[in-house]
Amino acid sequence: MSKAEYASQSAAGDDLVSLVRFQELALERSHDLITVTDSTGRIVYASPSWQTRLGWDLDLVVGTPSTEFVHPDEMKTAVHAFLAVTAGQSIESAPARVRAADGGWVTFDFSLAPLSDSVGREVYVVASARDITEREALRERVQEINALYRVADAVARATSLTTLFEESIDMLVDATGVDRAAALLYDEADVMRFQTWRGLSDGYRVAAEGHSPWTPDATSPQPLLVQDVADAGFAAELEEAIRAEGIVALAFIPLLHDGNLLGTFMLYRDAPHAWSEREVRLSQSIASHLASATVRARAREALRESRVQLETIMRTVDEGIVVQTSGGRLVYANDAAVRAIGFGSTDELLASERGQTLSRFELLDEDGRPLQTDDLPGRLALAGETSERTIRYRVKETGEERWSVVRANPVYDADGRVTMAVSVIRDITGTRTAAERQSFLTRGSELLNETLAIQQTLAALAELAVPAFAGHVTVDLYEDGVLRCVGARHLDPAKSQVMLELREKYPPTVEAHPVQRAIRTSEPQFVPDVQAEAVAMAHDERHAQAIRELGNTSGIVVPLIARGRTFGALTFGTVPPQPPFTESDFALAIELGRRAAIALDNALLYGEAEARAHAAEALEFVDDGVFLVDGDGLIRLWNAAAVKTFRVKATKAVGKQVEEVIRDWPAIVDRITPAAEPTAGLRSPETFPLVVKGVERWLSISAVRFPGGTVYAFRDLTEERAVEQLKSDFVSTVSHELRTPLAAIYGAALTLQRDDVRLEESQRTGLLDVISSEADRLARIVNDILWASRLDSGQMGVAIESCDAARLARQVVDALRHHAPTTVELRVDAGDELPPVAADPDKLRQVLTNLVDNAVKYSPDGGTVNLTVQPAANRIRFRVDDEGLGVPPAEQSRIFEKFFRLDPQLTRGVGGTGLGLYICRELVQRMHGRIWVASDGRRGSTFTVELPIAE
Ligand code: ADP
Questions:
Q1: Is the peptide bond before 467 cis (omega within 30 degrees of 0)?
Q2: What is the number of other CB atoms lying within 10 angstroms of the CB of residue 671?
Q3: Tens digit of pLDDT for each residue in 752-794?
Q4: Ligand 1, closest atom to CA 912?
Q5: Per the count of CB atoms within 10 A, which of 190, 356, 517, 825 is most buried?
């Protein structure tokens, strides 16, 4: 019978007393807890279970308000349910704890129903309750196990610590029924920090963070349970924060691993709460799971991080790293190693069997000798030896050659056995190739610079390039406008000749031929696939066939251009098994071509310079002065004649500004009009006086302009001009010289002829003397001119004989004394014992006459003239001293020149032809003697003649 049925039936029952009795019997036997309260909640009936189950005295229970027995946690719900029932509702099932007499709590499942009296006034509440403590305990146990199971499952599943904490907190809340919960962990600075939380405000977390009932190094911290914050004795601030958050009860459950405190679980309730052992135990279990998960996760994280780091390092290092086991099996290889060994992926490499891997390469040592696998550093490391060596390996499939420096170390186990070998591979192909190329380029440049025989050089270059750089090289150069192959070299010597012949037969003149393209565009050509272009570049099918047979794979053509001039082209090709050319090969070829072009240009320049040097050499022998002034006004060429005229050495003049060398240059340069070009005909040269080192020189200069400057050619007319001047002076002097005696003769003759004048005998004699002496003078002048003319025409014969020098001297002076003015005293000083002189007596007489005559003539103020004859070693010396005008030292050499006179204008009134001393010198030389003058230029002169003694 349900309670509802019971209620309705009881309301409808007739025999209330018997019914009550029946009810009492039933109730007294019931294990259920039956309670009836009045409308105020006061208990009016309590079944015997109150005593048997809870230990209460029934009399004490009846009359007591039912709330006295309600668990504080459930008070609210209980009051709410009571009011609902008094309002007429029934409640089927409501679990609640009832206080037992011993202070413990027993959980009952209540069902409540209202009970009114027959008139419906009094209202009672009937509560029947079944003891479900055991069931509850079982349910909690299941819940607990379930929670732990879920935690364990979560730990197993968790991918990150964060999700694990999240899930654990949820489970904890579920399993304990707390209002809020949180998990905190110590951070690196040992500060407790919220990790996960439920139902906590930001403000609370900030206030509570860092608070911990334990020190971080606490060894076995116990849970701290706070039933009511009011009694906890927390610091005021913390307590205030807890209250402000609405928290009343808290539990601190330490998160422990191996006795180390990692953090805490926090359980919060908003009402005072006596934390049950079960709650604490459950929390501790979850905490311990979580703690170990945390430690494991942390360790795993650290491991993962370090592995990631290591992996990243391994991946990013340029050095290849390979680990092989003692059996030689590869167990690890990083990306760089995979690349260096030439595999596509790590898996591919690791899966490859050792012998198989090695068979892909041709292993060579640094010098290109085959390398035994036992000598590989990895193998040596497995044998316990640490080593490093440079290894060159050729990839058989592609022909590519690579270089590596491999260093390997053994790894030992605890027993000192080698378990692994770690090899570090550094790919040095790049630097090695760069070095090889550099040395190839250097050697090529050296070759190019070594000789100026350019064709041989280029042929040598071809030799050098094969096989260091290319499989074949061809050099085509323009010769008289025609492209000719001057050198060809092929990896296969037999093919070198074939290539040359082929080039002869089929010159690269087809428009699409890369050589033509390179020359036409002046751009280097890169032909990645020669065979693909074979037909396009061939003259005909047979040519194409020949190209196919040569089998070049890739090609590079570099035009040889320097200073805008194209000399030809260099062609490089690759031949299998060489790998095809790459971009860097292209760059190298271009560089090589550039250097070759410069070398060619240098050779040509040198040729031109040599030709120019020959011309310059020729200019050295030209009597005309030649110098070249470049566009900057610098002297570039200065020939021997220029040296002579300007008295500046070529080494001093070349490279100088022209006005530095020729002082008057600015004054005359504008007056020279250069011809536009050498072929423009000869311009009449301009003649200018120029002062060179204080001496005036007359130059006749003409100029021709050319692209690099102006060439000046000049003739030094100074000598000619002087001779011209002398000649004209001579004419005037001689006319004067002739006119003077003629006038005297004429005058004397006229006087003698006059009839109207009677002349005394003495007067007649005087006039006749004048005629005689002036005629004599005339004769001497005419004589001088005759002598000079005979000397000039080479008609002067000399008949040398042994003469008496003293006698000759006396005769000359005696003859002249006759004409000499009275102011001049003539003397002869000649010893009798003189040896005979070897001379032509007429010529010697002429010489002495001229000298003594001059001495008299140039002593206008009188004085003594002495002719001394004496022996000097194996010679006879004739000396004529006077006390006359003297000869300035600067003019002493010139007075022996033809026509030269110190005083051509006759300012001193002494006439002459300027021939006397010239005749003397010429005659003395013909008689194998010497003549010179000594004078201080102020007073007196001494003329000396030396002639050999006759044998
Ligand atoms: P000239 O007919 O003028 O005398 P010479 O050839 O004999 O010609 O002499 C050349 C010049 O040398 C003379 O003009 C004169 O100036 C100078 N000369 C020659 N002899 C003497 C001397 N004894 N004393 C001074 N001057 C002299």
A1: yes
A2: 9
A3: 888 887 888 888 888 888 888 888 888 888 888 888 888 877 7
A4: 2
A5: 517
